[in-house]
Amino acid sequence: MKRFAFFILVMGLPCLTRALQQSVVADQLETSTSRQFFESILRDDTLAMKLESDFKPLQKNKGTKDYQPAILYFTDNTGKKTSLEIEIRPRGKMRRRLCDIPPLKIRLPGKGEDPRTLKMVTFCKDSPKYEQYLLREYFAYKLYNMLTDVSFRVQLVKMYFKDTNGEDAPSESFAILIENEKDLVKRVNGFTLPDGAAEPDNLRTQEVEIFCLFQYMIGNTDWFPITSHNLKILGLDGKNYPVLVPYDFDYSGLVNAPYATSDKRLELVDVTNRYYQGMKRETSETLQTFGLFLSKKADVMGFCEKFPYFDGKSRKHVVKYLREFYEIIEQPRRYKQEILKHTDLWIKL
Per-residue pLDDT for 147 more than 90? Predict the structure, then answer.
């Protein structure tokens, strides 16, 4: 089976319907440890934190799945100064191998099946340039938040690192804390569906089209529904079709990280080249989706121009890249050629 031929799926509509009927709606669950923590720190501005641990094992043994002790210091939204004994371990795939400090999974204090983990995206290399790549990825998460509530919420953190063994550790850097998946599911009154739970006709919805057009907007082709690569497949209460929720945008043209690549079969010269990977729908329906993105244009561009942590190069790149996207969906000749005529083509590669 070719990677892109996700029309050949393992579950048909009857199986999906049974999955929807049998799943437990997440709002029946009590508030989790991870949600309580995340809500206590979530804010519009940047959160200052200090992470204290032995960083040598994180750098020497990036492939481990074992947690190690750490202490997290922060001030919550009530003004309470807190030191929290947590556990951390490396996570991720490509960045786990490439980065000096890999992305981390944080496990909060607790017991049993209660969700109590959060993902943290750290800088890849200890340099201002790589910090800017991380800030661009944070910006991508916030863009998707503007388009739909069925998206991962994120908190930007200014993280101070302290090595307990006195070794040299990165002094400080921005980091991204990402909402726990189960907490997202509960917040949107949904439930998680298994890999392959997307049936072709059920992907021809506006929700999925918003997902696909957003990925085109940021120039990201690093996702794949049949294996849930860089996305989660959710069911929503009252809907009989799946919804795709994206994450991990470091391979996008918006971020334009130096290690990012695209699949060779797409024949893209550069990761900044866009390639629409959407499903074919009625033109009138797709134009409605364009309308949603255009209605957010002023907010998107305003957020970009006012975001305080971009340096001059990042701001210039992001503004230019997003303006090019809006030019495409505003001009019939261009969106017919680059989007409408491109629907369903990529799955045949």
Answer: yes
